[in-house]
Specification:
Elements (H helix, E strand, L loop, with lengths): L14 H14 L4 H4 L24 H8 L16 E6 H6 L9 H16 L5 E7 L11 H8 L18 H4 L3 H22 L5 E5 L8 E5 L2 E4 L10 H12 L5 E5 L3 H12 L7 E6 L10 E4 H8 L1 H13 L13 H10 L1 H4 L12 H14 L8 H11 L11 H18 L17 E4 L2 E4 L9 H6 L16 H4 L34
Parallel strand pairs: 1-2, 1-6, 2-3, 6-7
Antiparallel strand pairs: 3-4, 4-5, 7-8, 9-10
Amino acid sequence: MTTVANKRDKLMVDSEVLFRRLLAVSKKRDVSLEQVLTHELAPVPPSLFNNDGTMRKTNKADLAKKLEANCEEVQVLEPSDQHDTAYVIDGMALLQALDEAQFDTFDDLGRTIMQKIQSLLASNQGVTSVTLVFDRYDVPLSIRQLERERRTGGESTPRYVIDGQRTVPNYRKFLKNTTNKSALADFLCSYLTVAAQLQLEENQCVTLAGGFNDGLLVKVVDHRGIRELPELFSTHGEADTRLLLHAIHLARAHSRVIVRCDDTDVLVLLIYYCGKGMFGDTKVYMNAGHCTKTTNRQRFIPVSRITDDIGQDTSSCLPASHAISGCDTTSSLFKVGKRTAYSKLKQNIAHLAPLSRLGQTRDTTNVVSTATKYALSLYGSKSSHTLDQLRYVYACTSDKQASLFPPTDDAFEQHLKRANYQVAIWTHSHVAKPVLWNPDGNGWQVRDNKLEPVMFQKDAAPREVRDLTHLYCTDDDCRQSRTCHCISAGLTCTEFCSCSADDCPNVDDSVVFDDSTDEEHD
């Protein structure tokens, strides 16, 4: 039994049961099915959320595979003797990938990371600059909070005080606690500021961003000492966008920039900014995958080749498409995968180009029409003009389960607002301290000091249907409001009532369900 609700109104029935009951109501009560389907008919939008209220998720890696198919795989980069290659690394991803058998204490862990940095600097790739970028966990009311909770599975993990000589506890469990991750990032940054000074050669440097207790700070370490980089002090909360900030900055002084990350979001942003010309003539690669003793799944993705192949219009719309079809902070559409989302974008780019405006302003009015067209294409619709119309077509021509129906226009509007806010964050990656609108009231709401998604604005169902979920006539006579719940609610009885006999005085036999439609069926 579903008890998740919106606007604190609990509907004690799941979406499938509501759909079945709707058919009975439409026969006995003067209810327009087309109008009823403009409501979600469920406590949560089934196409966007699971029954427990969590966002539906899709496999983001499928999008990366589609994008990588536009170029040949590069497993090993050509050596460079120009000594002006910069490496930018997702620090927390690096920590997550460590083999805990390689270290016992936190100092050992620090030495392991320093050895990896030295290995890059000593390679034949001409690397002279290594940047570690960390997520910030001190950002209040983060839209990433729900995703972080999902990944930890709600498991409670003890907090540890980190000391260099202390033995690292169960490493995987340790990293499930955001406080532990924040403390580890700060410890590592502090460790490297000392170790790097002693071990770096001339013309080599290590840059540390986001990992200090003051998340704004950026420090550059070389053999001469430590200096701050105020122009890159950043309010970005996620490493994804801060990686781009540093990559764009490094491209001004290096002929090659390599971003070490496995996140599809970062690949999308690299392609987006490459299409905008933000890297100039610098060659940009994303280093993804891993190399082990027995297998080599590491690869270097040539960002500019992908950008050239898919074209500027598609690369400009890629963040919008990615957010609308589901990312860490937005829901995916049930059974609509990333391959479909990308293919539909490519096929219809001439009509979907205005999606590139998503994230430019708080107001989504100027993109809602194009975004709806895109959503309709994901469901294969060629004739419907709104998602509500397509829901009606589905109801009249199929027996699809509720989650396979598209969201209502009302629910999609809130989904689009969340996508708009995420795209705004992404497309301001090049700005160290972007000024954005408050997510509260823009697809999100604050409850119990946390941001939660606003699922829809309308009632979950019209009164006639909503009341059916908890009003059943148990009277055999149906002549008094005191004993007949339907009469007291001003409703006619239905076949679900105890009085469903043909001679019930509270049945309107004149109401006939009309399932005809002028809409061409998809």
